[in-house]
Amino acid sequence: MKKTEVYSWRVAVELKRSLEEAARAEKLSLAQLLERIGLAWLARRAEPDETEADIQQQLHQLAAQSFGSVQSGNPSLSREVSQRMKSKMSRRYRLKPLAEWTQNFEITPTLAEDFVWRSEIAPRLGTLPDNVMNIWNYGFTEMFNNAIDHSEGHTIIVYLVRSETETEIYLLDDGVGIFKKIQKELGLLDERHSVLELAKGKLTTTPDRHSGEGIFFTSRMFDEFTIISGDTYFSHKFSQQEDWIQESQQFSSGTSVRMKLSNHTSRTDKKIFDHFSSGDDYGFNKTVVPVKLAQYGSDRLISRSQAKRLIVRFDRFKTVVLDFEGVDGIGQAFADEVFRVFQNQHPDIELVPINANEDVMRMIKRAMSNR
User: Fold this and answer.
1) Which of 28, 110, 260, 285 is the least crowded, having the fewest Cβ atoms under 10 Å away?
2) How far apart are CA 100 and CA 121, in angstroms?
């Protein structure tokens, strides 16, 4: 008689509840669902890797086919594209999602992010824990409002997919592109400089209407947060300290934002806000700047011009944490401009270097010793 091995392990109560809910939806036993998940995971490992950037670009290209369908009165095109987007994502998830939905929104003076959240998004997130719902409420409304106020586009497409373990939301618009707009408004030399400014926080092209905190805090709250616009791809993962900027395929227009969050995270929006406040005023006065974003390709950070781009708007914070993760070395002029010249001009601002190797730290200490 063939022996059957029995395995047992502990899982979080919330995860067990979600798995049981998914099993009922699929009309399977819990054991059958776990077996299917295991087989799907093994199959995905055997397939060629398709990066998140690849998937996001493909979704944006699909969405671009339905831009304008709202204004032109062609809902059939919008429905067709929606089905193709769902088909693309279903091949990725393999299991039927607990919720999947996409909708086109025409950008009009009456379109409001809080109404879309209450009427469309929140009901489709199910009974997620309060802390998870709070993060989604903040992130979705901030990103949707950004598209309304800043994209200069005509249409926003929202795509939502929720599995038993995680939820993803994509927002795609047909506007001028977020990085291109920031470059133009701030007079930057390159679209990639826009990513560095976004990473610092407190960046807005309309200071009378926005604080410039939305994208910064949203990117820090989610497990994964990505923006693709033009030929630039920006990514922040909660599990990694550094941000990533890289070349992407050229978009014809618009911006694609992707947010991903575990349905069972213990993270709270308050913890994220508190992490970037210092002192007793509880304001957004502390930032973490990935120095590597000032470096393009194999270029070394050696010049004062590079340093001056890095320190732009540092004076809006009380504490600036400079994360040198991934930076192999810096030049004397670069270090001097940041840690002597800027520091002498702004003695009340605290500069805190972290994750610096011996060579980088030596240059920093040399510059500081000349103050």
Assistant:
1) 110
2) 11
